[in-house]
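Researcher: Let's walk through a ligand-bound prediction step by step. First, I give you the protein sequence. Second, the SMILES string for nicotinamide-adenine-dinucleotide. Third, you return the three-dimensional complex as structure tokens. Ready?
Model: Ready.
Researcher: Here are steps one and two:
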Amino acid sequence: MVRITDVIHEDAEWIIQRMGEALEPLSGSTLVLTGACGFLGSYVLDVLADWNRTREEPCRIFALDNFLVGLPERVAHLKGRDDIQFVTHDVIEAYEPREPVHYILHAAGVASPMFYRQHPLETIDVNVQGTRNLLEACRTQPVRAMLHLSTSEIYGDPSADAIPTRESYRGLVSCTGPRACYDESKRLSETLCVIYHQKHGVPVKVGRPFNVYGPGQRIDDRRIVPDLMSAAIRNEPIVLLSDGRATRSFCYIRDAVWAMLLILLKGQAGEAYNLGNDREEVTMLQVAQLLQEIAGTGKPIEHRVSADPQYLSDNPQRRCPDLNKLRALADFAPQVLLREGLARTLQSYRHEV
Ligand SMILES: NC(=O)c1ccc[n+]([C@@H]2O[C@H](COP(=O)([O-])OP(=O)(O)OC[C@H]3O[C@@H](n4cnc5c(N)ncnc54)[C@H](O)[C@@H]3O)[C@@H](O)[C@H]2O)c1
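Model: Step three, the predicted complex:
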């Protein structure tokens, strides 16, 4: 059973206070949100739903999803509201809006390696054809801004001298490996955004999230944080399917969604921005140890070998964003360190089950 938790409402309140007037352009506008039942999309929906409660002229939201991996129950608490229309729609089909659209936030995708390995062609389709359809929609609509969510995975496995990684880094990516359906189609999606901006003046901005985690993510999503949380909640040993030495810079979702809204509303069209947390680059083992301590279960950390022989193929050894471009754009600094973010996430999962 997944349900909205107090943690998300508290986070939403924080974002609303912190962004203040910066959200004002959304008043009275119409926004199309794709992937509205997914991890990032549903959280954006919760933030905007809470913001709308304070507005005379709310933002009207068309919340699209095809439920390939998103769960409808994640947003069930928002059904029946006048300001949010849920639309079952696969974005690989052309989208005909029912009213003029001012903003598009394209969060549809297949982000978890477990799911994109199960659905490689759908992953390519949503990233390439889905993005193209939304860029086409921008040409016929009075769109002020579109945010396309790409990924830090477009950088592949950067060399040590490219850490922290800037937007100008071209990447070291396999075009045929087990992650290629995701990484390469995201790369092409960015090419499409640049072409539509240059050729048709589409006001599209690209965000490249780095390892976001937090409340609202499916606990069976098989990304590392929900996997560890699942073990902690069940009081089982924490299992790492690696030697635990690879690093990531995990970004709590409140910081990520704050950055996404800043890029949507203030970003320069045709540009890509890293979004994440540059304050801590930690090993997988450190994440597991921290969670072990926070959860206080006393269960050990075990290293096992995945049944999938390609589980670790092309796995990036390090991930850390350079956020200078985003900082130059707006007053952004990630606030939530891993200890606090994991504690909030665990609290949220404990309320769900
Ligand atoms: N969460 C992260 O850490 C992270 C990191 C980098 C990039 N991203 C990108 O951000 C976006 C959102 O990520 P997320 O973690 O919320 O992903 P998610 O997998 O949790 O959710 C994506 C949502 O998109 C929906 N979807 C998939 N294909 C669709 C289609 N063809 N038409 C309509 N809906 C479709 C899914 O059903 C799901 O609800 C994705 O594009 C992802 O690649 C996320």
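Researcher: And what stands out?
Model: The domain at 6-217+250-278+320-335 is CATH 3.40.50.720 (Rossmann fold). Residues 34-35, 37-41, 64-70, 90-92, 107-112, 126, 130, 149, 151-152, 209, 211-212 surround nicotinamide-adenine-dinucleotide (CB under 6 Å).
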